[in-house]
Batch of 4 targets.
Target 1
Amino acid sequence: MFLRYAQVVFDNVVFARGFKSGWGFAAIIRGYSKTILFDTGSVGDTLLSNMLTLNVSPSEIDAVFISHTHDDHMGGLFAFLRANHRIEVFLPEDVSIGTVVAIDEAGAIPTVLGSGGEIIPGMATTGIVGKNPREQGLVLAGDGAATLITGCAHPGLGKLVDAAGKQFDLPVKLVIGGLHLGQSSRRKILALTRQLKELGVEQLAPSHCTGEASTQILAEVFGDGFIDSGLGRRIQLV
Ligand SMILES: [Zn+2]
Ligand SMILES: [Zn+2]
């Protein structure tokens, strides 16, 4: 039994049987004062079906955190709000006004985030990093270290880890999520790995848009610190 964990509930990379896969990413974060749904995947019915498989009722979720506005991370949001609208939705600052209004009309509380900072005890946003799309990561404070959850890491994982480390002044030891390395050369991935290790990252649980070849290289380099992730995987937080 993990005290604090993330469980992947939407992914195109499949870890466990019995779930419906789809392009995108979503994870449930447990063990803090509030239970968070990080991103929503692209299809709401798939997300809700996977939650049902895990015996997690939508009513157990207290807040949704959206990393960036791409459809494969936000597409399931309104279906989720139809199942539970008594929540706060944390959004990146380039979200459209129409979406903010629609969330409000659905009965939920939209909160648009720009700079970094704690949003729930022990949980912070990295703040918005990069452009087109702007993206934020979720930082989870642990024992002497932190975990970073990413959607696609479009701005570059190094930049997100750097911003994450400043939130609680804790080194980011574990990274979970999409790393968007599909087209990267081996040299580029090795350079990223060096940067991550210098920043204190010891464990990596990539999935979604990381890319198969890139995931293989990360597995080699991280060795015991590599966590085979994907749909259905439950990962203990630091
Ligand atoms: Zn994306
Ligand atoms: Zn994505």
Note: The first strand starts at residue 5 and ends at 11.
Target 2
Amino acid sequence: MVDLFPSDRQGALQRLDEFVQAEAIAYARTRNFVEVGHANVSRLSAALRHRLISEEEVVTAVLAVHRFSAVEKFVQEVVWRTYWKGWLEQHPGVWEDYVRQSAVAMTVPPSGGAMSRFTEELRTTGYMHNHARMWWAAWWCHQQGLPWAAGARFFFDHLLDADAASNTLGWRWVAGLQTPGKAYLARRDNLAKYWEDHGSLEDIDDHVRARIPAETADRSRTSLSEYPEAPPELEGKVALVGHADDLSIETTPLGAVRPSSVALIDQPGVTDSAVKCAWRSRAMDDASARWTSHYGKVVSRLPCWDALASWLSESGCDALVLMAPFVGPDADAWRPVRQTLQDAGIRVVECRRAWDQRLFPAARAGFFPFWHKAKPILSKRQQ
Ligand SMILES: Cc1cc2nc3c(=O)[nH]c(=O)nc-3n(C[C@H](O)[C@H](O)[C@H](O)COP(=O)(O)OP(=O)(O)OC[C@H]3O[C@@H](n4cnc5c(N)ncnc54)[C@H](O)[C@@H]3O)c2cc1C
């Protein structure tokens, strides 16, 4: 069966190839249309979110075949992910605010009406088209007057691509918090134009005004943490640990590490949907199989970050190498564990991909200043 939202690296590379060959050129013109089957978009977001494939691989593949100007819109969309991630790394108070608010928020959406078709699609497939996410979030915040963080939590529990940065900041943007004073509103003529299979739109209130909530987040900017791209030579027995933020570490400088032991941490959210959990387990199985073959070690599957200390002591390792998790659930769970390991004298080395090191510093303010800096770097990749 063809996986509409690839859950393994091979499937993601195949979908990328198909998209590059057949769909990339039309993307700028067709991407906003919400169609059954979503053939006009890449459907690679879940694979990208977990780095079964990387943004760099996607951009490199598309630029290997097409001129930059012909696929600029697609490249720009791909780096929206990088931008949001880089921005959240520098504004962790915004994630903390979402965590606080969503812990107490109601997560069941109202049933009936035009948006319930998308609710159903999200529940059964774990996917919603970008334009539908915008309409749905606008309906939730401005028409229903519900708390944005509760809607964001509902998305987070169901989306295969649930991502701390893209989801939190996408919701804040619709709600009118991200770009202060500017909110997104859903309008009937826009839905009718871009939604191929729309039914009645009568319940969409065309006159609704933005209900922008009070800002409760600490938006102050913190410096980016410094990480090496590759680990240094390490003495003694080295453990390598992977996690849901990067499931293709063997394609990075971590691929050259010769570890004594390898583990994969799989700590899903407690309220994650069954559809999301099933996709994630397939992706984890795929990573585990690839790493077993690449590193020549059986990969231990750990159910949570808290299991790391005892696994390390059983494996007798003196050092631990991993990709630094991004601001989000894995980083929150990792932080206290890192402290425990360091207190126990384990050397911890966290790395970050060159792509992130290069582009995150530019994600300090709005997207367009970021794009102004990113575009020359990306367009040069073609030469
Ligand atoms: C309210 C809201 C919540 C969202 N939550 C998430 C989320 O949790 N996880 C997530 O990955 N994306 C999220 N997005 C962004 C976007 O909707 C999805 O990335 C996109 O729909 C995925 O489908 P695709 O891969 O077919 O996209 P394509 O149109 O094929 O785009 C190619 C790639 O570009 C990136 N991209 C495209 N649009 C955006 C965008 N607006 N923001 C960030 N990256 C983008 C994605 O990596 C995507 O795979 C959200 C958007 C909104 C408005």
Note: The chain has a mean pLDDT of 96.
Target 3
Amino acid sequence: MKKGEMLYEGKAKKVFKTDEADTYIIEYKDDATAFNAKKKGTIKGKGVVNNKMSAIIFELLKEKGIPTHFIGLLSDSQQAVKAVEIIPMEVVIRNVAAGSFSKRLGVEEGTILNTAVFELYYKNDAYDDPLINDYHATALGFATAAEIESIKKLAFQINDVLVEFFKQHGMRLIDFKIEFGRFHDEVILADEISPDTCRLWEIGTERKMDKDRFRRDLGNVEETYQEVLAKIETN
Ligand SMILES: Nc1ncnc2c1ncn2[C@@H]1O[C@H](COP(=O)(O)OP(=O)(O)O)[C@@H](O)[C@H]1O
Ligand SMILES: [Mg+2]
């Protein structure tokens, strides 16, 4: 497979065409942004960590029957994926109150939620990725009701797999953000799952092991990303 022209460059990754119509190459960058790009920086080695971690997790999800875009790793910072039409929504699952949820609803960070919470955001930086519900999504044509049903089902299945996986590797999955895309009439998991897109707290110490270290200037950002990868790479 040959790498072709760059299709788009996002905040964390570049997407390239290939000589195969159904396949893209994603290149993970060290660039870091937070608060919808109001805070910018670099996390050395992040591209490699996020590329490898996404590969491990998407392989795991595939084993559990979740359809994903992941095809295979090409290098430390690049992977081949199925070319999807991204559904313009950020899907968030929360197990424990944190971040914008705590702020918006006045719930102390760390509060365990009675049930996992499913949230949708309209993926649009110009409007700060506003919170929406399934009515907004269908009314505005982001997704059909049937697509939202499968997204919801997949998101909770993914949560079950990931909560257990991170627990086995010494971390609590507080919340995470995922994106879905259309691939030949099927809705599949796309984008990435990494410390940029998950909140992970170390079991025992409650130490934050995710992008909150960058967002909140907690220090040891690079080291912690490496540590997360090392943890999930050990059995
Ligand atoms: N399999 C895929 N096919 C097409 N686009 C994808 C795929 N996986 C992820 N993308 C898109 O690639 C873009 C680049 O990723 P990223 O840098 O994270 O962007 P953003 O700045 O929107 O967060 C995003 O728009 C994301 O939705
Ligand atoms: Mg992104």
Note: The longest helix spans residues 145-168.
Target 4
Amino acid sequence: MSEQPIVVCSFGETRDGLPAGAEEVLHIGRGLAQTSGAPLLWVVLGPLPERAAETAGLFGVQSLHQIDDEKLKMNSSDAQVAALVAYGKAQVPKALLVHQTLEARSVAPRVAAQLGGAVVMNGISVSPIGENFEITASAYGGDTRAVYEVGPGPVLAFIPNAAIPEPTSADPVAAEPFTVDLSAVQERIEVIEPACFDGPRLDDAEIIVSGGRGLGSQDNYSLIEQLAEALGGIAGASRPLVDDGWVDSSHQVGLTGRITRPNLYVAIGISGASQHMAGCSAAKTIVAVNRDPEAAIFQHARFGIVGDALEIVPELIRAASAG
Ligand SMILES: Cc1cc2nc3c(=O)[nH]c(=O)nc-3n(C[C@H](O)[C@H](O)[C@H](O)COP(=O)(O)OP(=O)(O)OC[C@H]3O[C@@H](n4cnc5c(N)ncnc54)[C@H](O)[C@@H]3O)c2cc1C
């Protein structure tokens, strides 16, 4: 049994009392720890999210460490890098796993470089091969999969989109403080005001109705909003609608937008490009409306309607409002 741990690192945005994506990465970390016979540690930077101790227990974490410091409260990346490098040097992990948030894109490669390990971004799954790791990652904007073999001590950033099995119940793991001296860190980026979005989040939505370029014009996007409202869901969009300024970027579903996992995803006038599907393929049920019977979205959809969105969506709104 190796004593070098697998370490899951969480920092930045929190959601529902947990760091964003923590459960997904803990699920991957638990699998890797089990197959490599290593203990699983979880380190959280900044204030401890409410559900961290309970979640650590559910995912078989041996030790939950918290590094807290004034400098970590504003999600400043120089302090995050310094804290994780100090933690990595102390624990000498077999691998460090992070959820690929916007912050992680700039933090993970710097931590890897300072610890002398490799970094792989866009990870989907990982397995040990002797002392090394084989990691499958999304590449070329989600069009293909790349498989890498990296040596010990890498930093692996994940964009998991598989469903997590219900964890078995277990006792919470009490957080232990892990002290790192960050007094010498000179932050080079000043966060004046963290971005904040008050509306409902696509990431947590049970029902999403998304519109694509097939809507034809910005005015027609109101049909998407009406159908979303009638179904009790949230309106999303493909990237061209965001690029053209029809809706703001908080609506974008996909590889470079939000990664969603609703029960119902209704895609209207969306072709089904791989980069869009990266943000919705974990939906339980996909319904597509498209006038092209050969559109790729129909390969993913459980139910499909071939026809003009501008004729079909008003009927769906009527039916949903009546029901
Ligand atoms: C690195 C990278 C990252 C990307 N990230 C994202 C991302 O995060 N999210 C994202 O969405 N895209 C992303 N893209 C873009 C992606 O490749 C596609 O270009 C985009 O998803 C296409 O959007 P669309 O389906 O709305 O438009 P189109 O591909 O133009 O499809 C429009 C569809 O509407 C149908 N249609 C037309 N008229 C009607 C009508 N009247 N009624 C019904 N159907 C109609 C057409 O048959 C067609 O299938 C990314 C691309 C790259 C290279």
Note: The chain has a mean pLDDT of 92.
